[in-house]
Amino acid sequence: MASSSIRFAIVLLLHVILLVQLLPVHSDDEDDHLLQGINSFRQSANVPPLAKHDNADCLAEEIADELEHRPCASNTASNTQLANYQSLIRKCKIDINTTTDGVILPVCVPDRVAPLVLTNYTESQNSGYLNNSRYTGVGMAHEDDWTVLVLATNTPGGSFANKACLLNIITSNHLVSLFLGVFLAFVG
Ligand SMILES: *[C@@H]1O[C@H](CO)[C@@H](O)[C@H](O)[C@H]1NC(C)=O
Ligand SMILES: *[C@@H]1O[C@H](CO)[C@@H](O)[C@H](O)[C@H]1NC(C)=O
Ligand SMILES: *[C@@H]1O[C@H](CO)[C@@H](O)[C@H](O)[C@H]1NC(C)=O
């Protein structure tokens, strides 16, 4: 009896660990505030709010990591060049054909002073993208002085969809945790 309840405890623990790992990676106050600011800007332009987009988030994270050590002076609006853009796309397992209608908006503000970051999006040439209803999803990340937004559309050309891959499907839900649980329940 004792051994079966220990086994049950182990299975339970494993489920908890695996499920915690599968929860959304981060919910960041700074990003949330910026998104609120951008969405009220959109509201005033009569366009629907942007929703968080996981794959765009992944790409924004990779791009922010890339830009991290670049000086702010290279902040020339939206044409910051990334030589390895394709490999960043690949790291996030995104099908590159679903990124062409999206847009990447990096902004560099020393110390990321929040009101300045927001106005760099809403009161610069970036605003023309952010008040546009064709964009529906957003990925956000920040590193050092850089903030990166990746805007996605709800059309195939800008959906930042995953490359078709069976492994993605299996690992993207908690089937793995279930299999492991079932497996352990039968061991011993
Ligand atoms: C993307 O589109 C091009 C041409 O339309 C095609 O050759 C290529 O295989 C596509 N790539 C992927 C990953 O689907
Ligand atoms: C954008 O940020 C820079 C600092 O990098 C600041 O000097 C500038 O005033 C900001 N522009 C807007 C429109 O907010
Ligand atoms: C969006 O911004 C651009 C440039 O800032 C402006 O020309 C356009 O009228 C705006 N569109 C809406 C829907 O507010």
UniProtKB/TrEMBL annotation:
Which InterPro entries does this entry report, sorted A to Z? Answer: At5g19230-like, At5g19230_dom
Show the Pfam families listed in the entry. At5g19230
- Ribosomal protein keyword on record: no
Task: Give residue ranges for domain Uncharacterized GPI-anchored protein At5g19230-like.
Answer: 31-151
Give a yes or no for keyword Disulfide bond in this entry. no
Residue ranges of the TM segments:
166-187
The residue range of the signal peptide is: 1-27
- Alphabetical UniProt keywords: Membrane, Signal, Transmembrane, Transmembrane helix
Record's protein name: Uncharacterized GPI-anchored At3g06035-like
